[in-house]
Amino acid sequence: METVLSRPLKMTTTGLDASLLSFTGSFSSARKFKFPANIRLTVESGCKTIKAYSSTSNDDSNKNLMCASYGRRGLVFKATLPFLLPLHNSIEGLDANAADEYFLIKEEVKKVLSKGKAAGVLRLVFHDAGTFDMAENSGGMNGSIIYELDRPENKGLKKSLKILEKAKSEVDIIQPVSWADIIAVAGAEAVSVCGGPKIPVQLGRVDSMVPDPEGKLPQESLDASGLKKCFQGKGLSTQELVALSGAHTLGSKGFGNPVVFDNSYFKILLEKPWLSSAGMSSMIGLPSDRALVEDDECTRWISKYADNQNLFFEDFKNGYIKLVNSGARWKKSL
Ligand code: HEM
Question: What residue ranges line ligand 1, CB within 6 angstroms?
């Protein structure tokens, strides 16, 4: 069996973060986690040929060589791509290689993602990225969630990661992708498939090889000032706290249709249905959702988003981009 170090070493194409190469840390602790160990084995079998070309540059001739070595599926992808060019060329601001990769990841994610799975996948993004601690410069969007699935706050996320495992192994056959990148793209797709804004995601995050420090995600029992403080520590403003909390419009907490991404969350928050004794109203929302609408500054944003869905979409998009870039280490500097 290969060690957990083998995959990142194979990713040493150009400019891989030097700190990762010099990693000598706790393999034994990483091995303890059953889920990632399985993932790595799957990835290993899919990536055999990458090894031979991993130390070369990323130019086009090289990509053709790589595709040749990936066998039929790689060739089919390469051959099909020109017909899809009008689509993938529309990914603004990306060079051709990055656009290819982005397109490939999105296509594989779309194959495994349905509306019913979107909420869990979006939550996965927050639980990977939301560990970021600016002061300690730790955590963030680094794929470390794969080592943290047994933590109580991550209950239920194993199945969301399992869904993405298939997409990741398919992408890995053509071009290795980090967990951090695939989760970030998948969360954006989850929003989009449910009718939310289209969110462009920068690629090139390097995965961490160890779990992030514990206790960094906000607890649902926090009041508004606790939530604000927690988000501030991650470089996120009150406005971003409110906009990003709008993700709870998806899922089963009672904010409208569980598979439709819209501004129902804010409309329903303003009604405070949990104060009513009628039916299931008292079950709506988490304590942290209810806390937001008890705070004047948060309520100003809640009202704006309840009145103007386009503004919510725009601010959610920008907040999401910031979230998935939090604490990320990049193959190449941005
Ligand atoms: C503000 C602080 C936050 C707290 C305290 C919090 C906590 C929680 C909790 C306790 C749940 C319920 C999990 C369950 O059903 O077992 C949940 C669900 C969810 N959270 Fe958050 N969350 C926060 C912010 C966010 C952010 C910023 C996002 C994404 C941008 C997010 C995305 C989601 C989604 C999509 C669900 C529904 C999951 C499902 O139904 O499968 N959350 N959150």
Answer: 119-120, 122-123, 125-126, 156, 218, 220, 227, 244-245, 247-248, 250-252, 286, 288
